[in-house]
Amino acid sequence: MTTQPLAQPKKKKTVWHTIAAQKELIIMSVPLLLYKILFSYVPVVGWTMAFQNYKPAVRSFWKQEWVGFDNFVKLFVGLNGERFLRDLRNTLGQSFLTIVLGYIGSISLALLLNEVKNIKFKKVVQNITYMPHFLSWVIVAGLVSTMLAIPTSGGIINDVLIRLGLIKEPIMFLSEPKYFWWIVACSNLWKEMGWNTIIYLAAMTAIDPTLYEAAVIDGANRYQKMWHITLPGIKSTIVVLLIMNVGHILEAGFEIQYFLGNGLVVEMAEIIDIFVLRYGIQMGNYSLATAAGIFKTVVSIILISMANFIAGRLGEEKLV
């Protein structure tokens, strides 16, 4: 009677085995890792300015006058505090409108394009809608300024509203503070809607086609298929993108507010980034500007962590 040889125990893979198996990918990622370290982590040393009365004449960071959290206190008290709180409100308001309109517009366009059967027409619409993404904000600000001008200056918006009988006299959109948040949100929608749609269309390709076939057999129309199949199928993508956008809620932009803002709408136009430029860098108060930047970063980390935690508790996709 022959005996079977004993099976050799499998060697447990170590971290070094994994590294050796993926060495090509690791080598390819080294330039990106060095880039991130150089431009994202090394500049964090400059955060020390927020705890100092920083003077550029003193070359060393460590020989500056240390003031503790005084610069953070100045962000919320006195004249600077009033301006900062106003700009914080504007930043949150503009970001919230931009995110809401962006989500509604991008998802709606993706749903409609997904239902288009004519491939050539679908590609033409996609190309037209995502081309504005590649325009500079300088150009976009110029286009928006022209479109919102009075009819004699090329203001197509006022011209259309007058011809439709909705208004009797041209509206000075860029001189009325109440319109500014909507101008920023709609400008972002026009510029980025088509580009963001690409992500949702890619997610829709992963939905099982048999689900649509079963829905047709059950008598579902197009709108019912979109609501009960397509939207649930891209829910995880929507949640992940929402978490990422929540982390950037204090980054309402800079260019569009800077180029379209003026003294008449400053109460609604100025945001945190413009506050940093005007009352920090231009006035030489680098410590205050750094404190404002740290505040943005800390709040963004807290918000994205909360959104990630809530998504996990609800059983949705998480970033980590």
Describe the overall structure.
- There is one protein chain.
- This protein has helices spanning 15-21, 23-41, 70-74, 78-115, 119-130, 137-147, 156-163, 180-204, 209-217, 222-233, 235-247, 255-260, 266-269, 272-281, 286-313; strands at 52-53, 65-66.
- It has a two-stranded antiparallel ribbon.
- It is built from 15 helices and 2 strands.
- The radius of gyration is 26 Å and the shape is flat.
- It is mostly helical and 320 residues long.
- Helices cover 65% and strands 1% of the residues.
- The model has no long low-confidence stretch (mean pLDDT 87).
- It has one domain: MetI-like (MetI-like fold, Orthogonal Bundle), CATH 1.10.3720.10.
- Helix 4 (78-115) crosses helix 8.
- Globally, the shape reads flat
Q: How are helices and strands ordered from N to C?
A: HHEEHHHHHHHHHHHHH
Strand order of the biggest β-sheet: 1-2
CATH homologous superfamily identity: MetI-like
Roughly what fraction of the amino acids lie in strands?
Answer: under 5%
Whole-number count of domains: 1
Measure the end-to-end span: 56 Å
- Give the low-confidence spans: none
Sheet with the most strands, sense and barrel status: 2 strands, antiparallel
Number of strands: 2
CATH fold-level label: MetI-like fold
Tell me the name of the CATH class.
Answer: Mainly Alpha
Structural class: mainly alpha
Question: What Rg is obtained from the alpha carbons, in whole angstroms?
Answer: 26 Å
Give me the CATH architecture, please.
Orthogonal Bundle
Proportion in helices: 55-70%
Subunit organisation of the chains: single chain
Task: Please count the helical segments.
Answer: 15
Average pLDDT confidence is 87
